[in-house]
């Protein structure tokens, strides 16, 4: 999993968690403003991103099996 840190205006700290799937596509999983929530944002976002990626892979495998 990787993190994008796009430029943000003011006090916002936008973060985007993403992965490259086995087919070499970038999959954006979770995005949000973590300003004022430095460590708690990651504690919530990483498990959510992992779950979304697992669901994505399962869906892709089902599509491949058709």
Structural summary, described in words:
- There is one protein chain.
- With 66 residues, the protein is of the alpha+beta class.
- The protein has one domain (2-64).
- Helices cover 41% and strands 27% of the residues.
- A three-stranded antiparallel beta sheet has the order 1-2-3, with helices on one face.
- It is elongated, with a radius of gyration of 14 Å.
* Largest sheet: number of strands, sense, barrel closure: 3 strands, antiparallel
Shape: elongated
Helix content range of the residues, please? 40-55%
Order of helices and strands: EEEH
| Count of folded domains | 1
Beta content: 25-35%
Number of helices: 1
List unreliable stretches of 5+ residues: none
- pLDDT averaged residue by residue: 93
Structural class: alpha+beta
Straight-line distance between termini: 28 Å
Q: Give the strand tally.
A: 3
CA-atom Rg in angstroms: 14 Å
Order of strands, widest sheet: 1-2-3
